[in-house]
Design a protein that fits this description.
The protein has a single domain (2-65), classed as Beta Barrel (Thrombin, subunit H). 0% of the residues lie in helices and 58% in strands. The chain has no helices and six strands. The chain has strands at residues 2-8, 16-23, 29-34, 40-45, 49-54, 59-65. The strands form two sheets. A four-stranded antiparallel β-sheet has the order 3-4-5-6, with no helix packed on it. It has a two-stranded antiparallel sheet with strand order 1-2. A hairpin with a 3-residue loop joins strand 4 (40-45) and strand 5. Belongs to the WD repeat G protein beta family. Ribosomal protein RACK1 subfamily. This is Small ribosomal subunit protein RACK1. GO terms for molecular function: ribosome binding; translation regulator activity. It comes from Bracon brevicornis.
């Protein structure tokens, strides 16, 4: 139901540090893709919505409803 943004490290004991948690979906998130510049993410959920996230602001910029695949 939430998307976690991580800062990846090269540390052998700790591979990353969670930076922020983004809330918005009402069911499991099944897919996530990132923009080539790393500024945006698009998540798909079992709640039949897609959300476009502004990762720097930590908020949804667009919400698409009733997707099926």
């Amino acid at each position: 139901k939430s998307l976690i943004v991580w800062k990846l490290t090269r540390d052998e004991t700790n591979y990353g540090i969670p930076q922020k948690r983004l809330y918005g979906h009402s069911h499991f998130i099944s897919d996530v893709v990132l923009s080539s510049d790393g500024n945006y993410a698009l998540s798909g959920s079992w709640d039949k919505t897609l959300r476009l996230w502004d990762l720097a602001a930590g908020r949804t910029t667009r919400r698409f409803e009733d997707h099926t695949k």
